[in-house]
Amino acid sequence: MAKPNIDASKLTITLIQTPKELKDQSTLKFGDYFTDHMLCIKYTEENGWEAPEIKPYGPLAIDPAAYALNYSVQAFEGTKAYRAADGTINLFRPQKNLERLASSSQRIMLPEFDQEQFLECIKELIKVDQRFVPHGHGYSMYVRPNFIGTEPNLNLAYSREALLYVYLSPVGPYFPRTVRLYANATEARAWPGGVGNYKLGGNYAPALRPAKDVNNRGYDQILWLLGDDHYVTEVGTMNFFIFWVNADGEKELVTAPLDGIILPGVTRDSLLELARRWGEFKVSERKITMPEVITAIEEGRLLEAFGAGTACIVCSVSEVFYQGKDHVIPVDPTDPDAVYGPLTKRLRAELLDAQYAVTPSSWNVPL
Ligand SMILES: *Cc1c(COP(=O)(O)O)cnc(C)c1O
Predict the structure, then answer these.
(1) Which of 121, 140, 173 is the last residue of a domain?
(2) Scanning 96, 182, 229, 367, which has its CA 20 to 30 A from the CA of 79?
(3) Cβ contacts of residue 317 below 8 Å, gap of 6+?
(4) Single residue among 125, 146, 173 that ends a domain in this structure
(5) Which EC class, in a word (predicted)?
(6) With a 6 A CB cut-off, is 96 part of the ligand 1 pocket?
């Protein structure tokens, strides 16, 4: 008989005894404040998925020898719930995140799970803690699913026990400013045959030291280059886009292809779709190299460059250090104080309007 999968109808809810006081919304930053409850769903190979539980937010009891702690058997996701002006709450394309979580976790031999039932449980968690979902444009509830191998076993086989859990963090508006990049061709975030296209915790720890190094040199983020031709992959933990007049003289929005190196961002996918719907210029997913980017800067053909991800939506790039030199990227030639270029700003506005349900969008999933 098939082992039980996640079943939202079996969800139990244990409410916290002393609910937290709500933090003053204007003091919200990113990722250091959590709500009252969390969702936990346990799995064992023997019995399948247990009944989902919503319970007070708090420490997990994990065996010190758990796979997650020894061998980084951990996959995660990040998505957001947005409160519309009328008070209703929507998740933005959460199915994309759950598909990606399934793909990431299967790469590290974690068990399959029913994505729809899991989404129903996540919605319930947000409902339970909905007083924490902030009001107003720019504010949102960050949703962090985590999937870990919990079997205590030092043998490198696979974890026969697992925990899928979700917690919530109300977040404030991202302070808009442009970023300066340091193009790094020495260290690699991901490589052919590697796991750069999966959101695995193990991909992020090794990036901490290179990131700190560039911060110490006065740069905000790493532009990750790969291989001898200096293929431009991603920026920090964001997908990277350029808008330029390409070598053939065409206006083109370009980002790296889903070739197994880059993380398939939901923001990336959404921006590509918006730009394709407009149909005003060429939109490409293809490999570009740093020498091509530098030539475009020198010839005045690079119009805008930006990073894209759930945390900031889009973030304009104003400068990039490459081979001993800072190269200035124009943000908006008509406005020296602009923090977004014209196209970047338009993409950002259109995406935010969808997320806050200012314009109706089939991407929104109501609670
Ligand atoms: C999460 C992440 C992104 C952005 O993905 P979104 O789904 O748009 O938030 C891009 N690159 C890396 C390396 C990431 O971890």
Answers:
(1) 173
(2) 182
(3) 178, 179, 180, 181, 235, 305, 306, 307, 329
(4) 173
(5) transferase
(6) no
Closest CA relative to residue 145, chosen from 69, 67, 39, 49 = 39
Asked if residue 366 is part of any domain, the answer here is: no
Which residue puts its alpha carbon closest to atom 13 of ligand 1?
237
- Residue 27 belongs to what domain range? 8-173
Q: How many CB atoms lie within 10 A of CB 269?
A: 17
Atom of ligand 1 nearest to the CA of 264: 5
For ligand 1, the distance from its centroid to the CA atom of residue 267, given in whole angstroms, is 8
Copy the structure tokens of residue 132: 């924490």
Question: From the centroid of its chain, how far is CA 165?
Answer: 17
What token pair was written down for 251? Answer: 């206006």
For position 85, what pLDDT does the model report?
94
237 lines ligand 1 (CB under 6 A): yes
* Cα–Cα distance measured from residue 16 to residue 273, given in angstroms and rounded to the nearest whole number: 42
Q: Which atom of ligand 1 is nearest to the CA of 270?
A: 8
Atom of ligand 1 nearest to the CA of 309: 8
Q: How far is the CA of 239 from the centre of ligand 1 (A)?
A: 6
CB 54 within 8 A of CB 77: no
Q: 333, 340 in Cβ contact below 8 A?
A: no
CA 45 / ligand 1 centre spacing (Å):
30
What pLDDT was estimated at residue 336? 87
- Compute, in angstroms, the gap from residue 311 CA to the centroid of ligand 1: 9
Instruction: Say if ligand 1 is within 6 A of residue 6 CB.
Output: no
CB crowding 297-320: b at 16 or more within 10 Å, else e: beeebbbbbbbbbbbbbbbbbbbb
Asked if residue 278 and residue 229 are part of one domain, the reply reads: yes
Question: Would you say the CB of residue 150 lies under 6 angstroms from ligand 1?
Answer: no
Note the pTM of the prediction, 2 decimals: 0.97
Average per-residue pLDDT in the chain?
A: 96
